[in-house]
Write a structure and sequence with these properties.
Length: 255
């Protein structure tokens, strides 16, 4: 019987931890001198260091959409739909999800293993013994850093995906720059931008919270550290996919 309630207990625990982290954001902003460096380093690692792989992936996706979708739409005499397709795939759907996958692969593992190592080495106990809140000092800056970084990385991915599509398209047809981006802006709506940003914020919150919780979940053995990293990756992947489906479904219902 107890096992039946374990998933429900985990859900409430994650929600409670998330609420506790949100509550700590205000205190972190007011007293951020000690932990501000952690926030900056998290943004540097999660956003700046991931720009290279994001650029490559964004240009590849944009090129693939144009190369594959362009001829098919031309056969159907619907060439103008390529701009709608680019916005849907790059900005609304693939952009937020693929950048989330990049962050999960790099940052979720790093955060979970780093905090797990601190728990094993009793650093977290040392923080508590001197009156430092580990949630405010360890969880909040990583939560803010990952969420901010994922939102910026999503914007960066969308821009380079659309630019990459244009550059590759020049090998097949000499579309003027003004016509290309003018057509994109005509098909772009504010709800597309909002959905993309909302997804990135949700994904950033999910990835950071899951990674931190898995890091704190270890007990004594050093062998638990890589396990915490694997659980963080698998849990963040699953939750991001589920939330992506729900947000996309809600978008199509409302709009």
């Amino acid at each position: 019987m107890a096992s039946l309630f374990d998933p429900l207990k985990n859900v409430f625990y994650h929600l409670g931890f998330f609420a506790r982290t949100l509550f700590g954001v205000g205190r972190f902003i007011r007293n951020s001198q000690a932990s501000f460096k952690i926030l900056i380093m998290q943004i540097l690692f999660t956003f700046v260091h991931a720009m290279g792989i994001s650029t490559l992936l964004a240009v590849a996706i944009g090129a693939a959409v144009f190369v594959i979708g362009g001829p098919m739409l031309t056969m159907l005499n619907q060439q103008s739909l390529i701009y709608t397709l680019l916005i849907i795939l790059i900005m609304r759907e693939l952009g937020p999800l693929l950048t989330a996958f990049i962050v999960i692969a790099r940052s979720a593992t790093a955060i979970a293993t780093e905090i797990a190592g601190m728990v094993i080495s009793h650093e977290v106990e040392a923080y508590i013994s001197v009156g430092v809140d580990p949630i405010e000092h360890l969880a909040v800056p990583r939560f803010l850093g990952v969420t901010i970084s994922l939102m910026l990385l999503n914007i960066y991915f969308s821009i380079f995906g659309l630019v990459g599509s244009y550059l590759v398209g020049q090998f097949f047809s000499s579309t003027p720059l003004s016509l290309y981006f003018g057509s994109l802006l005509q098909q772009l709506h504010i709800e597309d931008i909002l959905l993309s940003l909302i997804k990135s914020i949700f994904f950033g919150a999910i990835i950071s919270i899951v990674a931190v919780i898995q890091g704190f979940s270890v007990e004594r053995a050093t062998t638990e550290v890589p396990v915490a990293g694997l659980r963080a990756v698998s849990g963040a992947f699953a939750l991001c996919i589920v939330v992506n489906v729900l947000l996309s479904a809600l978008y199509y219902v409302v709009f």
